[in-house]
Amino acid sequence: MPRRNEASGRYVVNLDSGDGRKLVCSWDECDRPGTTLHQHYECVHSVSASCEGADNRLLKLIGQTAHRTHVFCCDDHRNYFVNAYGRNAHESIARTGRAYGNLPVGIRGGRFR
Protein backbone atom coordinates (compact mmCIF):
# COMPACT_ATOMS: atom_id res chain seq x y z
CA MET A 1 0.00 0.00 0.00
CA PRO A 2 1.55 3.36 -0.96
CA ARG A 3 2.28 5.96 1.66
CA ARG A 4 0.26 9.17 1.63
CA ASN A 5 2.89 11.37 -0.08
CA GLU A 6 3.64 8.79 -2.77
CA ALA A 7 -0.04 8.40 -3.60
CA SER A 8 -0.76 12.05 -4.37
CA GLY A 9 2.59 13.86 -4.66
CA ARG A 10 5.33 13.79 -7.26
CA TYR A 11 9.07 14.00 -6.84
CA VAL A 12 10.64 17.29 -7.91
CA VAL A 13 13.25 16.86 -10.64
CA ASN A 14 16.18 19.22 -11.29
CA LEU A 15 15.87 20.03 -14.99
CA ASP A 16 19.05 22.15 -14.97
CA SER A 17 21.28 19.16 -14.20
CA GLY A 18 20.40 17.44 -17.47
CA ASP A 19 20.21 13.98 -15.95
CA GLY A 20 16.81 14.18 -14.25
CA ARG A 21 18.06 13.94 -10.66
CA LYS A 22 15.46 14.35 -7.92
CA LEU A 23 15.85 17.37 -5.65
CA VAL A 24 16.79 16.44 -2.12
CA CYS A 25 14.81 17.59 0.92
CA SER A 26 15.87 21.12 1.96
CA TRP A 27 16.11 20.18 5.63
CA ASP A 28 19.87 19.84 6.13
CA GLU A 29 19.78 16.55 8.06
CA CYS A 30 17.73 14.69 5.44
CA ASP A 31 18.76 12.98 2.20
CA ARG A 32 15.32 11.84 1.00
CA PRO A 33 13.84 13.28 -2.22
CA GLY A 34 11.47 16.25 -1.96
CA THR A 35 7.90 16.09 -3.24
CA THR A 36 5.44 18.58 -4.70
CA LEU A 37 3.21 18.19 -1.65
CA HIS A 38 5.71 19.73 0.73
CA GLN A 39 6.95 22.95 -0.86
CA HIS A 40 7.68 26.35 0.67
CA TYR A 41 7.62 29.46 -1.53
CA GLU A 42 9.81 32.19 -0.01
CA CYS A 43 9.83 35.90 -0.90
CA VAL A 44 13.30 37.38 -0.34
CA HIS A 45 12.46 40.96 -1.25
CA SER A 46 11.15 43.97 0.65
CA VAL A 47 7.45 43.92 1.46
CA SER A 48 7.14 47.41 -0.02
CA ALA A 49 8.09 46.13 -3.50
CA SER A 50 5.71 44.13 -5.65
CA CYS A 51 6.69 40.54 -6.40
CA GLU A 52 6.78 41.13 -10.16
CA GLY A 53 8.81 44.34 -9.85
CA ALA A 54 11.32 42.72 -7.50
CA ASP A 55 11.72 39.73 -9.83
CA ASN A 56 12.34 41.95 -12.86
CA ARG A 57 14.85 44.15 -11.01
CA LEU A 58 16.88 41.23 -9.64
CA LEU A 59 16.83 39.34 -12.94
CA LYS A 60 18.52 42.33 -14.57
CA LEU A 61 21.02 42.80 -11.73
CA ILE A 62 22.11 39.28 -10.77
CA GLY A 63 20.17 36.87 -12.97
CA GLN A 64 18.00 35.45 -10.15
CA THR A 65 14.44 36.03 -9.06
CA ALA A 66 13.37 37.44 -5.70
CA HIS A 67 11.64 34.18 -4.78
CA ARG A 68 12.87 30.73 -3.79
CA THR A 69 11.06 27.42 -3.78
CA HIS A 70 12.19 24.83 -1.25
CA VAL A 71 11.03 21.20 -1.43
CA PHE A 72 10.75 18.79 1.48
CA CYS A 73 10.04 15.11 1.96
CA CYS A 74 7.44 15.60 4.72
CA ASP A 75 5.44 18.26 6.53
CA ASP A 76 7.58 18.05 9.66
CA HIS A 77 10.75 19.01 7.76
CA ARG A 78 8.92 21.88 6.07
CA ASN A 79 7.63 23.11 9.43
CA TYR A 80 11.11 22.86 11.00
CA PHE A 81 12.54 24.92 8.13
CA VAL A 82 9.84 27.62 8.19
CA ASN A 83 10.10 27.92 11.98
CA ALA A 84 13.91 28.31 11.94
CA TYR A 85 14.15 31.84 10.50
CA GLY A 86 12.64 35.31 10.74
CA ARG A 87 10.02 36.21 13.33
CA ASN A 88 9.36 32.51 13.94
CA ALA A 89 12.98 32.00 14.98
CA HIS A 90 12.78 34.82 17.53
CA GLU A 91 9.66 33.28 19.05
CA SER A 92 11.37 29.86 19.20
CA ILE A 93 14.43 31.34 20.90
CA ALA A 94 12.25 33.06 23.49
CA ARG A 95 10.29 29.84 24.11
CA THR A 96 13.04 27.18 24.06
CA GLY A 97 16.40 28.96 23.87
CA ARG A 98 17.16 27.82 20.30
CA ALA A 99 15.80 28.51 16.83
CA TYR A 100 16.85 25.36 15.01
CA GLY A 101 14.86 22.12 15.14
CA ASN A 102 11.65 23.35 16.77
CA LEU A 103 8.14 22.88 15.47
CA PRO A 104 5.76 25.85 15.73
CA VAL A 105 3.52 26.05 18.80
CA GLY A 106 0.51 23.76 18.49
CA ILE A 107 1.97 21.38 15.89
CA ARG A 108 2.82 17.86 16.98
CA GLY A 109 5.58 16.10 15.08
CA GLY A 110 6.28 12.54 14.16
CA ARG A 111 4.63 9.82 12.14
CA PHE A 112 1.93 8.98 14.66
CA ARG A 113 -0.16 12.11 15.25
Outline of this structure?
The protein has 113 residues and is α+β, with helices and mostly antiparallel strands. The chain is built from 4 helices and 2 strands.
Overview of the structural elements:
This protein is of the alpha+beta class and 113 residues long. It contains 4 helices and 2 strands. Strands 1-2 form a two-stranded antiparallel sheet. The longest helix has 12 residues, at 51-62. It is flat and about 40 Å long.
Provide the β-strand percentage band. Answer: 5-15%
Counting helices, strands and paired strands, the structural category is alpha+beta
Could you list the spans in which at least 5 consecutive residues all have pLDDT below 50?
Answer: none
Assembly level: single chain
Main sheet characteristics: 2 strands, antiparallel
Choose one word for the global shape. Answer: flat
Set down the secondary structure blueprint.
Layout: H1 4-8, E1 35-43, H2 51-62, E2 67-72, H3 75-83, H4 87-96
Antiparallel strand pairs: 1-2
List its traits.
113 residues
